[in-house]
Automatic annotation (TrEMBL):
The keyword Signal applies. Residues 1-23 form the signal peptide. Keywords: Signal. The keyword Signal applies. It comes from Azonexus fungiphilus. It comes from the Bacteria. The lineage of its organism: Bacteria, Pseudomonadati, Pseudomonadota, Betaproteobacteria, Rhodocyclales. This is NlpE-like protein.
Amino acid sequence: MGLKIRTSLFAAFLLSASFFAFAEPTDTRLIGNWQGQRDQEGKCSFMAWKMARTADGKFEITFYGDPGKKQILGKEKGRWEVKDGKLSLLTDGVPTPDIYIYTFIDENSVKLSNVKRDPSADCMADYEFTDHRVSQ
């Protein structure tokens, strides 16, 4: 087998491996529409959000600067997965995923603790919040 063919096969393998790194979410309880917010008196500045996580491992999130969710700060989308009991969110265009330890309070409420983030994140502190399932 020639060097060009081996190089092409190796490149195809790497591409498929990176694609399948976020191929499927592994905790279906997290699928759906959720909302939450950071404490107004917490380690990080206040922010509220609405998030949709789909069964194909994609997410979309809208951030708000007020509790009434009128002031949109921005929107993001990307891929999510659960691995080793941690929720990982890889936002499109951001090289490092945000990682959260999570615990379900009940089927419609989940407590998340941020333990890793990209250096470009708006808050570098570890913080906790509770997301609540919403119907849409």
